[in-house]
From TrEMBL:
Gene3D superfamilies reported in the protein's UniProt record: MFS general substrate transporter like domains (1.20.1250.20)
Matches recorded under PANTHER family: CARBOXYLIC ACID TRANSPORTER PROTEIN HOMOLOG, SIALIC ACID TRANSPORTER NANT
Domain Major facilitator superfamily (MFS) profile: 21-409
Gene field: yjhB
Main subcellular location of this protein, as a coarse class: membrane
Organism: Reticulibacter mediterranei
Any GO molecular function: carboxylic acid transmembrane transporter activity
Identification of the protein by name: Putative metabolite transport protein YjhB
Listed Pfam families: MFS_1
Keywords: Membrane, Transmembrane, Transmembrane helix
This protein's record includes keyword Transmembrane helix: yes
GO cellular component: plasma membrane
Tree of life domain: Bacteria
Membrane-crossing segments per the record: 21-43, 55-75, 87-106, 112-134, 146-167, 173-194, 215-240, 260-280, 292-309, 315-335, 355-374, 380-400
């Protein structure tokens, strides 16, 4: 039976319920991406209306990162205790409400507070949706599950880049935030049409779901060292990606691009991100999760510097380089849920992803502030290039040394049923295509 299943094309291993569950979670990620990146497009508009300098305005990006770990801890613990589906719905409601309220902000502090709510919701939705899909799909295609799911976030980002020029020109920046209420309607479908995660249901039958608050279990001797290494990994990944992810639109405007030009470049960037997450899923199932990270990030290193040598007159070449950088450097983040999940067991996995990812995501709060502060000394383009290059090397070192895996060996028995990616970098590997 196992041999026959392995010979099936990967997409034939999925049931109708698994596919429906994936698309519902994917839609949540897409709307999450839409809601979250809006701020990066209208930062200069907000800066002008509220009379802020660039460094202060960039803290509005950081606000959502500051609150994320709390949302990850609370909603992730809900996912471990009462189920992944209910936690997904709670997370979506929070970030949709927060985004909608941003459109009514009357000053800097009100907008900052509403961005905190966005962070609470998106953190919980990230961990609940990731565990839901990963625990529902067959083990041998979980890299695809991870990469495909993260592609939803990029689709949301692409939609923003497409509608941004029209909405802001004709309705003003607030209307982008008003549209953020749309995700609430997705939850109406989710409540009535989705089953619970199969793996979580089985764990519940065996009595292996969280008995209390799983966040506190993570602070025990067994899980805390693993959690800390995952936090450091994600922090490094955000420091690698978010200088460019958050400040590239601002950089383009300062070099002479108008809103249409910014929209075109960001469309190419987000399209590269989209294809990169999909490719990461295939590559991860083919060569292994860790190798996929290393190979892809090594390629990204050669793309970073040239991007900031080009002026606004070389729009086609700049667009191509930005596309390739997002395809590699940021596209590989599609494997983050899979990479993190395999280090934790079912009863703490929701909280582990919620806390580990979102404490690490504080790198996204630090990156734009550090980038703008460094820019005052060496220029914005040089600052973005330097930060991205350095932190890419750090991420490669973490993955190549298998740091989380080394730390988690004491928990091997608890996670063996989930992890199917225990290869070492120096062992012989004969990749087989997944179909």
């Amino acid at each position: 039976m196992a041999t026959n299943a392995a010979r099936l094309p990967w997409y034939k291993e999925l049931s109708g319920a698994q596919i429906r569950g994936f698309w519902a979670a994917w839609m949540g990620y897409a709307l999450d991406g839409f809601d979250f990146v809006i701020i990066t497009y209208v930062l200069t508009n907000i800066e002008q209306e509220f009379h802020l300098d660039l460094v202060t305005a960039s803290t509005l990006i950081s606000a959502a990162f500051i609150s994320r770990w709390i949302g990850g801890a609370v909603v992730g613990s809900i996912a471990d205790r009462i189920g992944r589906k209910q936690a997904m719905i709670a997370g979506i409601w929070l970030y949709a409400l927060g985004t909608f309220l941003c459109g009514f902000a009357w000053n800097y502090w009100s907008l900052f507070a509403f961005r905190l709510i966005v962070g609470l919701g998106m953190a919980g939705e990230y961990s609940a949706s990731a565990t839901y899909v990963l625990e529902s799909w067959p083990k041998r295609i979980r890299n695809k599950a991870s990469g495909f799911l993260l592609s939803g976030y990029t689709v949301g980002s692409i939609v923003v880049s497409l509608i941004y020029p029209f909405i802001v020109t004709h309705g003003g920046w607030r209307w982008l935030f008003y549209l953020g209420i749309i995700p609430v309607f997705v939850t109406l479908y989710m409540r009535t049409n989705l089953p619970e995660s199969a793996e979580w249901d089985k764990a519940k039958e065996r009595g292996n779901t969280a008995k209390g608050i799983s966040f506190f279990q993570l602070l025990s001797g067994q899980w805390l060292p693993v959690l800390l290494t995952i936090i450091f990994f994600i922090f490094s990944a955000f420091m690698m990606n978010w200088p460019i992810q958050s400040l590239l639109p601002t950089y383009l405007k300062t070099t002479g691009f108008d809103p249409v030009g910014v929209g075109q470049i960001m469309f190419l960037a987000n399209f590269g991100y989209l294809l990169g997450t999909l490719w990461a899923g295939f590559l991860g199932d083919w060569v292994g999760t860790r190798r996929a990270y290393i190979y892809t990030l090594l390629v990204s290193l050669v793309l970073i510097i040239p991007i900031f040598w080009l002026g606004h007159s070389a729009i086609l070449l700049l667009g191509a380089l930005v596309f390739l950088l997002e395809f590699t450097s940021i596209g590989i983040s599609g494997l983050h849920p899979k990479y993190m999940s395999e280090h934790f067991s079912t009863e703490v996995r929701g909280a582990a992803l919620g806390v580990g990812y979102n404490l690490g995501a504080l790198g996204g709060a630090v990156a734009p502030i550090l980038g703008t502060a460094l820019a005052s000394q060496i220029g914005l383009g040089n600052a973005l290039a330097a930060l991205t290059f350095f932190w890419t090397l750090v991420v490669i070192a973490i993955v190549a040394s298998n740091l989380p895996g080394r730390v988690s060996r004491r928990a091997t028995a608890a996670i063996a049923e989930f992890s199917d990616d225990t290869e070492q970098i120096d062992e012989t590997h004969n990749p087989q295509p997944a179909g």
